């Protein structure tokens, strides 16, 4: 554990572990947090992991940590690291096992009063329509040729096959497809794990959630995003399922074996990496992009399933659910940022961190460019979620990055020891939250007490200027595996 006295306070919301802390650090490590939240962060190995990240070859500026940080595999969850392109390293641990785990927000034209009487039946309909649970497959089973098309085209494949409309892709990060995807870099084992998992949620902290907009902080930006008080919206949180997990597993094992070939020595073998310019680095990046495309297609099929449920519940004439935005929080991308007053191409690793590009950035679609990219931050089950907007300050300080959620403060095993799933379901029902789940044990693992306070996390990124608050959402229906 890193002692608090080793950190230098830069301002109320930013702390630094200086490069002098350890002899092998190439850059400092920085963490956005409040003093109150810092005490919890110091209780696990997340900052020690951030220091380890600073030793990676080619790392630029600093290893960055968001306020929802907690201990992960190699990299802390809530970590951001930029490697110089093209010879800096790429590390699968800096993206995570659930490649392109991300969040999509769907907007309705209905208010709370319009749906209040339907919530119980809507919850059942969504649970029936969206397959969930550990290892569970869906109704679509693809042959390898067709799966390769999904891996190459991402959401384009889904729309072409009738699972959405052309305009849907416009409101997704990278339009729902990374051009570097190469299906041949994905193992047969990984493909077989994903063949029947399109349109499925999985388990763990993944969910479909019906929310009510309970507070608008910035009326102008909210209007640009199409959000209003008491509006009903739906959040989708999931990723690349078994396919993405296997891609990570395959390349972590490979890189752990071959790092000596590139004269790379690290304090933690979980940081396994190779230069992006190497054959193995390129293959991982192309496989990661393919898994990311699978995840965008997966969320698109879930969107289609939710739209079906919506029509069944509210009638064929019900207004279409439109996409506000879809953003990844476990991904690597090649981006250009300013370092020392010069534009530099970087290999951005975001693991449990959300892209938060500010106003005027060319990668923000025209509809949102004046106000900044939407940043969707889901809270823990039973607590609030937020819609934020990226800022120019984030571009300067955090490579255009923000937090990704509440962040765990308790392990899944500890949560199950502290909470009974049935009692939690009853408690949430008393709060007016309709729960549908296939596993009461899994429900207990995701209890609100297992997570940090989402309001505190969002306050830090807001006060630090990494993202601005736009709207607060509260759950009405939660569907989990």
Automatic annotation (TrEMBL):
GO BP annotation list: RNA processing; RNA repair
Listed name of the protein: tRNA-splicing ligase RtcB
EC number: 6.5.1.-
Protein residues bound to Mn(2+) 1: 98, 206
One Pfam match: RtcB
Catalytic reactions of this protein: a 3'-end 3'-phospho-ribonucleotide-RNA + a 5'-end dephospho-ribonucleoside-RNA + GTP = a ribonucleotidyl-ribonucleotide-RNA + GMP + diphosphate; a 3'-end 2',3'-cyclophospho-ribonucleotide-RNA + a 5'-end dephospho-ribonucleoside-RNA + GTP + H2O = a ribonucleotidyl-ribonucleotide-RNA + GMP + diphosphate + H(+)
Subunit-structure text: Monomer.
Any one GO MF annotation of this record: metal ion binding
InterPro entries in alphabetical order: RtcB, RtcB-like_sf
Binding of GMP, residues: 205-209, 329-330, 378-381, 385, 404-407, 480
Enzyme class: ligase
Record: residues binding Mn(2+) 2: 237, 329
Cofactor(s) recorded in Swiss-Prot or TrEMBL: Mn(2+)
UniProt keywords, alphabetically: GTP-binding, Ligase, Manganese, Metal-binding, Nucleotide-binding, RNA repair
Free-text comment on the cofactor: Binds 2 manganese ions per subunit.
Species this protein is from: Candidatus Uhrbacteria bacterium RIFCSPLOWO2_01_FULL_47_25
Catalytic residue list: 404
Family: Belongs to the RtcB family.
């Amino acid at each position: 554990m890193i002692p608090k006295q080793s950190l230098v306070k830069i301002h109320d919301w930013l702390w630094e572990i200086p490069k002098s802390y350890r002899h092998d650090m190439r850059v400092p490590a920085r963490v956005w947090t409040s003093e109150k939240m810092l005490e919890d962060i110091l209780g696990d190995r997340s900052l020690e992991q951030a220091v380890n990240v600073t030793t990676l070859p080619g790392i630029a500026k600093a290893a960055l940590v968001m306020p929802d940080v907690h201990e992960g595999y190699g990299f802390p969850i809530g970590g951001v690291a930029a490697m110089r392109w093209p010879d800096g390293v790429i590390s699968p641990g800096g993206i995570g096992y659930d490649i392109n785990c991300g969040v999509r927000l769907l907007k309705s034209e209905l208010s709370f009063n319009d749906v209040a009487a339907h919530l119980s039946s809507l919850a059942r309909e969504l649970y029936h329509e969206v397959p969930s649970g550990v290892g569970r497959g869906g109704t679509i089973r693809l042959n390898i040729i067709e799966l390769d098309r999904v891996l190459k085209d991402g959401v384009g494949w889904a729309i072409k096959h009738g699972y959405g409309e052309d305009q849907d892709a416009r409101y997704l990060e990278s339009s729902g497809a990374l051009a570097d995807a190469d299906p041949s870099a994905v193992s047969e084992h990984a493909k077989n794990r994903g063949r029947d998992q399109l349109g499925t949620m999985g388990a763990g902290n993944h969910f479909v959630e019906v929310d009510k907009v309970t507070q608008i902080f910035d009326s102008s930006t909210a209007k640009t995003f199409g959000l209003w008080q008491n509006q009903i919206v739906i959040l989708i949180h999931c990723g690349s399922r078994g396919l993405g997990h296997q891609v990570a597993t395959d390349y972590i094992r490979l890189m752990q074996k071959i790092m000596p070939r590139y004269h790379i020595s690290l304090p933690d073998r979980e940081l396994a990496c190779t230069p992006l310019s190497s054959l193995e680095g390129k293959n991982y990046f192309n496989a990661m992009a393919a898994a990311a495309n699978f995840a965008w297609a997966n969320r698109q099929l879930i969107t289609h399933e939710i739209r079906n449920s919506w029509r069944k519940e509210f009638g064929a004439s019900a207004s279409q659910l439109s996409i506000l935005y879809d953003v990844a929080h476990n991904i690597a991308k090649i981006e250009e940022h300013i370092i020392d007053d010069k534009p530099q191409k970087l290999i951005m690793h975001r693991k449990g961190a959300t892209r938060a590009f500010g106003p005027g950035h060319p990668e923000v679609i025209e509809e949102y460019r004046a106000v900044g990219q939407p940043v969707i931050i889901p809270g823990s089950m039973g607590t609030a979620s937020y819609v934020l907007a990226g800022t120019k300050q984030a571009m300067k300080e955090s490579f255009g990055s923000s937090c990704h959620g509440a962040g765990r403060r308790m392990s899944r095993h500890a949560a199950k020891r502290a909470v009974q799933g049935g009692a939690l379901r009853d408690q949430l029902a008393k709060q007016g939250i309709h729960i549908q789940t296939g596993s009461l044990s899994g429900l207990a693992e995701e209890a609100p007490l297992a997570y940090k306070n989402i309001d505190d996390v969002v306050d830090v990124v807001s006060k630090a200027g990494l993202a601005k608050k736009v709207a607060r959402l509260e759950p009405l229906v939660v569907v989990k595996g």
